[in-house]
Amino acid sequence: MPRFEDLPYRPCAGMTVINRDGLVFIGRRSSGPEHVDATHVWQMPQGGIDENEDPYKAALRELYEETNITSVEKIGEIADWIAYDIPREIVGAAWHGKFRGQKQKWYALRFTGEESEINILTPGGGDHEPEFIDWRWEKMENLPGLVVPFKQQTYQRIVDEFARYAKPA
Questions:
Q1: For the chain, which ranges sit under pLDDT 50?
Q2: Which end of the chain is more exposed for a tag (fewer CB within 10 A), N or C?
Q3: Total-model pTM
């Protein structure tokens, strides 16, 4: 196995989906090597960007594959990529040991649909395995305290960048 420092970051798109009330969609992860307790199991939708795939198109694809959501409009974007490392002790269990963490492109999206569109149990029209076992709308400022500790700095940056969008529409 290569040294941790020599591993690349996995390209990923992240979506901050904000409803008409200014609350953010979060999903409760079903499992994963990064789970440390029952509190820090929530996250916003995110997923890998395929080779030569446009990051925004990847974001919309991943959002659909994880939540079934398609009714969104782009309201913001963080210009640069945000990278984080996963804990060294779980590198072999996450992404087959190929990555040291993720570099993420984040988008703020206004949810324009009805809640009945959201389907985490059979997302992507039923073509994808569920990644979440529960979901809810949450105040943006609470997000960093709900994710695994190694993502908290990333989430704080997202909150700082996107807080202006978390107002009722």
A1: none
A2: N
A3: 0.93
